[in-house]
Design goal:
Nuclear Transport Factor 2, Chain: A, 5 strands, SEC_C_motif
């Protein structure tokens, strides 16, 4: 199963997009591949998929600092949409920072530049983190206890 939650293995799903063997057909595919790139610690891909006007605001080092500090455990795509200029993806990305479960809830905005989808910006929604105990169900939804899975 791919990091993004699709049934295909990573190598046959998001990794094809990350390595440039395939292009995302829409904003949702790009968002899923960016999430997978965080999981795979590929900061260069994440930087390269920002809109040109935002790219200089981010560095591979900053992205990897965050990606190496946390462990992403689950992606939930809530909805997608579009208007004349943009495509939107609302999602929740759950990650562990130690034993603290955090959720990044965002409605992202994507545009096409030179025929390719890129991430422009997003609106964040507040989410409270929570401590995960050893015997709690694992937040990755594996069905295992946290201590036997990501604990």
């Amino acid at each position: 199963m791919c990091f993004c939650g699709q049934a295909l293995p990573f190598e046959q799903c998001c990794n094809l997009i990350i390595t440039g063997k395939s292009k995302p057909e829409n904003a949702e595919q790009l968002m899923r591949s960016r999430y997978s790139a965080y999981c795979a610690k590929n900061g260069e891909y994440i930087v390269n998929t920002y809109a040109a006007e935002k790219r200089l605001e981010h560095t591979v080092e900053d992205i990897l600092l965050f990606a190496n500090q946390v462990e992403f455990v689950h992606l939930d795509v809530i909805n997608t949409g579009q208007d004349q200029n943009f495509q939107y993806v609302e999602f929740k990305a759950s990650y562990l920072d130690g034993q603290q479960l955090e959720v990044l809830h965002e409605r992202s905005r994507f545009i096409k530049e030179d025929g390719k989808w890129v991430y422009l910006d997003g609106n964040l929604f507040p989410c409270e983190g929570k401590k995960v105990s050893r015997n709690d169900p694992c937040p990755c939804l594996s069905g295992k206890k946290f201590k036997k899975c990501h604990g």
